[in-house]
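Problem: given the chain below (378 residues), write out its structure.
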Amino acid sequence: MSRENWYAKTQSKHSIDAEPRKGKFSDLTNDPCAKLYDEANEIFSTGVKLARSGDFDAAIPQIACAYLLDGRSINFTLVLPQNCNASQKNRLLDYEIVHKMIEYKPDEGSFGSSVLRIMLGSYMGGHPLYGQELIAAATVHIEFLLKYIEQHLEIEDRNSMVLGGCLTRTALLWLRSSLHMAMGNYKAATKDLTKALEIDEFYTQARESRACVWAAVKLKSYAIIFEEFKRIVDDHHEDNRSNEVSYAWLSLSILSDRSLGSLDEARGYYEKSIKATKRRDEIYGTRSDADLPDVVKQMTRRFHELQELQSNSALFGDLSALTLEDREKRKRSCLKCGATTTANGGDLNQCARCKRTYYCSRECQVEVGICRDSYVSI
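Solution.
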């Protein structure tokens, strides 16, 4: 993902004309993450109102806490829309007021102001004029806070007077990893996520982010990625909003390395991903197909291709009435076109990775898309 695309995805998609949400997400599920999200939303709303009233002393820690609890609670926009009324302003955080809070009592400084600088780096890191500068500033503040906390670990206590215990090394390492990813430095990102897991092995958010990086840029084998996502779905609540991504990667890992499971197992994870998508939309709001995670869309395309293949290929016909000899012959058919020999009459080529599928040509294997990197040349 380019830095510009990443920047576009960080921008708020909330409509300023929408009415404030009635009820809480935790009313629909007992997922602890939903409760945390509700808490972050409430703190953010209070913080914005305080900021609009000019009470920066109270607003800064409120907004900083909301960002650290769940950054999705922050409804950020670069510039307030024209004709924005008071109610709408109290639901939006724009660059101008964030900048005012950061510059408030600059000689004194504060942990909250440092967090707001990190937040700006996250939301505006792809800005064509200021992005690099904001990311650099965010990185400096993360490094400062990490070193300070290492010398004052009591800050991470939930009863801490410093941002309510929300300011932790794991949260800062996760935030810095996102900045590394924005700059395309995936190895540095995974290094930070690994450090976070060394501090807290149950910090599933970091484990999930690391596994997604491994899978997206192929930094680890499919076997390692598969086992990591299996642990993640085991650790997550059944209604976790990220389950659709984890199940999608589990399904695609099997399709890419058939030694990890059968086609039926891959289809099982596919169905769980679709179910998780529906459940996620029931709780947090329906999305269009275009707004679904890329890996979910990729998984869906692969299974649509397989379904079409199953309906068209003789390989997936009714085997119950066939003789043993006929079954073996169909087993050795090209997975794409059903041919039993290559174009020149030779034996089919076996997939070097899964040892289960056969193809009459490179074109057929590439078109199917399974284990395409392990094709054995004719």
